[in-house]
Task: inverse folding
């Protein structure tokens, strides 16, 4: 009668140190079961450092499909089933691991290492890079915009009701499915500002007041629109009753920094012609559609003399339509449209059944789908017709 071989439990370390072409016996782990809390994640090699250094985070509310975010990108997670048998072997404890390594180094044929399987894996999660889901950001910030009649923000800590609809950075990363870098870009694109720890959108009418006061003082003080001294502008706006943070915010929204601050002089700003002109155009069109000629006359009157409002600045801001012999213009802002292509094109084709390329381009230029080119997006969501080679293409819903 041959002596019975002694079986020694082995963990994942045993498999890791197996030589090519060798084999190992397997057995059920004492805790074998479905273990739905254990999921295999397949990673691109470039993402491994982010995982090992804990630079990845899951984001999403209970009613949302979770996404995985690095510092700069967002990934959807997709379960992919497998027809092969994939067995999950957990790590052994330290004493077992040491004993098994000793066993592997010996030549004792009576001792047999057995890998304990804790779960049969039906598949794994794959990561797919996606655009950040920033549409929700605008909705959250619109819940409580900063207005001219805003109460003293210092009372917020003592008044829970006053904080309704306000979101700190931590609140936003808990609610928005985007990486930190993408979220900051989204806040910048919305012209949001952090006020006493909460990220806010400033009411457009209030921003109109601040900009109007700035432009009046430009005339009174004979300042150059191309070289505004930050300290002078901020001190002036503060003396007129506007908060310091909003005085600086006005320069960031409507200007560009042309000279950084140094130890001797304040930084200089240049008012951006396009941003200022678009602001006044939006204010005019709040009242509804206007005849093009009337709109242009009022627009020129409202903008500073040094600026030259031209209709091409309004790409992605307005649509025109012919009514009889008159051309009318009305607000239709790309910034108010969804960022997902399917929803974007659905709204566009409800607005117009057919779009000329020159009219459509401003409303899809910002669409970004990782792995899909602009031409691919058009091919997926539109049907292109071109009556003749000399005519511009026309796009309709697919």
Result:
């Amino acid at each position: 009668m041959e002596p019975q071989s002694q079986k020694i439990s082995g963990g994942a370390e045993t498999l890791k140190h197996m030589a090519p072409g060798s084999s190992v016996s397997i057995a059920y782990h004492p805790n074998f079961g479905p273990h739905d809390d254990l999921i295999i994640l397949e990673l691109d090699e470039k993402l491994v450092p982010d995982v090992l250094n804990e630079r990845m985070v899951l984001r999403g509310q209970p009613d949302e499909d979770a996404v995985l975010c690095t510092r700069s990108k967002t990934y959807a997670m997709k379960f992919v089933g497998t027809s092969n048998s994939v067995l999950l072997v957990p790590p052994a404890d330290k004493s077992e691991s040491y004993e098994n390594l000793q066993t592997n180094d010996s030549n004792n044929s009576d001792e047999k290492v057995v890998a304990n399987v804790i779960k049969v894996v039906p598949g794994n999660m794959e990561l797919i890079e996606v655009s950040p889901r920033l549409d929700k950001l605008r909705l959250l910030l619109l819940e409580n915009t900063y207005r001219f009649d805003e109460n003293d923000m210092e009372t917020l800590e003592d008044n829970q009701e006053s904080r309704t609809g306000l979101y700190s950075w931590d609140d936003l990363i808990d609610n928005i499915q985007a990486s930190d870098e993408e979220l900051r870009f989204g806040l910048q694109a919305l012209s949001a500002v952090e006020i006493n720890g909460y990220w806010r959108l400033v009411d457009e009418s209030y921003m109109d007041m601040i900009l109007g006061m700035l432009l009046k003082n430009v005339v009174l003080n004979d300042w150059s629109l191309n070289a505004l001294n930050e300290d002078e502008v901020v001190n002036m706006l503060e003396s007129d009753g506007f908060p310091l943070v909003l005085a600086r915010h006005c320069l960031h929204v409507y200007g560009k920094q042309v000279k950084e601050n140094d130890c001797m002089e304040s930084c200089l700003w240049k008012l951006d012609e396009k941003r200022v002109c678009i602001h006044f155009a939006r204010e005019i069109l709040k009242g509804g559609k206007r005849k093009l000629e009337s709109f242009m006359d009022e627009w020129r009157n409202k903008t500073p003399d040094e600026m030259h409002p031209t209709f091409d600045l309004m790409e992605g801001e307005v649509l025109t339509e012919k009514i009889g012999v008159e051309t009318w213009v009305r607000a239709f802002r790309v910034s108010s449209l969804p960022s997902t292509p399917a929803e974007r094109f659905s709204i566009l084709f409800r607005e117009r059944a057919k779009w000329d390329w020159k009219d459509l381009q401003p409303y899809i230029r910002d669409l970004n789908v990782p792995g899909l080119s602009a031409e691919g997006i058009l091919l997926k969501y539109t049907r292109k017709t071109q009556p003749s080679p000399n005519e511009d293409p026309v796009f309709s819903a697919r």
About this structure: The longest strand covers residues 74-88. The radius of gyration is 31 Å. The chain is about 35% helix and 25% strand.
